[in-house]
Amino acid sequence: MKKAVQIMSVVCAVFFISAFTVYETTTIGDGYKIGDVAEDFSLKNVDDNMVSLSDYKDAKGFIVTFTCNTCPYAVMYEDRLIALNKKYASKGYPVIAIMPNNTDVKPGDSMEAMKTRAKNKGFTFPYLIDAGQKVYPKYGATKTPHVFLLQKTDRGNVVKYIGAIDDNYKDASAVKTRYVENAVDALLEGKDVKQTETKAIGCSIKV
Amino acid sequence: MKLKLLIIAILIITSCKHENKTVDKSVVIAKKEISDDVSLNDIELEVYDYNGFKKFLNRKDDKIYVINFWATWCAPCVKELPYFEKLRGQYSDKNVEVILVSLDFPHLYESKLKPFIKERKLKSKVIALDDVDMDTWIPKVSKDWSGAIPATIIYRNDNNKFFEGSFTYEALETEVKHFLN
Q1: Which of the two ends of chain A, N or C, has the fewest CB atoms closer than 10 A to its terminal CB?
Q2: What residue range is the signal peptide (chain A) (predicted)?
């Protein structure tokens, strides 16, 4: 009963906050939780092909990362995203990058700009545009960068980790805990992910 | 209902266009004033890690504190800053204190943040929070914070309320009034 009251008060708080939130359509409490099955999608890649998770027959899972061209935090993690894909795609966990922003609000995140960035940085993973802004709310992504680690199972792609890539946005060489790597390593070893959720500052997704 | 949504959409789109222009302008001005060392040196910026910063969230002096987390690179943050400034102007004699907590990157304090503070003539207290261990301190600020900015806490003694997202001036004033009464 006490729990029900708590949940109700959280729900009320969310409604109350959302009443005053002009930009955010997603509020805390929406989206996938650890253990949920993530729906597949079909989004356009920078090579103009449509990409779905189901295209990856041999994958064991996915490092789904909401990111963009224009957020300084996301930019600081571009090289680390490339490194993640290099390390884990061959082990069955490719990076799937999704750009969730409204490109009318952020022209720097347009498909053309995404193509340029992917080319200049040499992205080895798909960089998809959530053109209808329908995918990121399902995940409950609120910011860039925002990682959702999925594991392919008989019941679908199960969410195993949500949060940041590591614990030092400023300096890759000073990182103490590699959250995503630790989580993928655990899954590859058949173990439980120890730290399933982390928080980090990021740019709100532009709607 | 559809019409209402359309109007809101138009408002958001137009306000965002405006906001982009404003940001561009600030960038230009920031560049112009980088060489203006003397006046920028007058701006003293207090920089804290979370342990040093947390005192700003735990004051028990019956004042109403409005703590806004922002950064010069965050367009919706920059757009709502004037509302916090206006609030400071209208409520500083009513026991309300606004503190703007910058999450700008430390290497841009001199070239970006200080010129911004100077150009915008920010009257509210601006402090900088520099602590990379975000997974440790973000939940301490609020368990409801995903880490997206802008984000704001309003508190008075032990009562507090957390907001992730943008404010209008009216919404901000309404929330502060709840604490006044």
Answers
A1: N
A2: 1-24
Minimum distance, in Å, between the CA of residue A103 and any CA atom of chain B: 11
Measured CA to CA, the distance from residue A112 to residue A117 in angstroms comes to 9
**What's the domain range around A71?**
31-204
CB-neighbour burial class of residue B104 (10 A; exposed 0-12, middle 13-18, buried 19+): buried
Structural domains in chain A (count):
2
Q: From chain B, which residues contact A within 8 Å (Cβ)?
A: 12-13, 16, 73-76, 103, 105-106, 132-135, 138-139, 144-150, 163-168, 171, 174-175
pLDDT tens profile B79-124? 999 999 999 999 999 999 999 999 999 999 999 999 999 999 999 9
Contact B105 A206 (CB under 8 A): no
Using a CB–CB cutoff of 8 Å, tell me whether A13 touches chain B. Answer: yes
Chain A residues inside the 8 Å CB shell of B151: none
The structure's pTM equals 0.81
Same domain, A40 and A75: yes
What's the CA gap between A81 and A87, in Å, rounded?
10
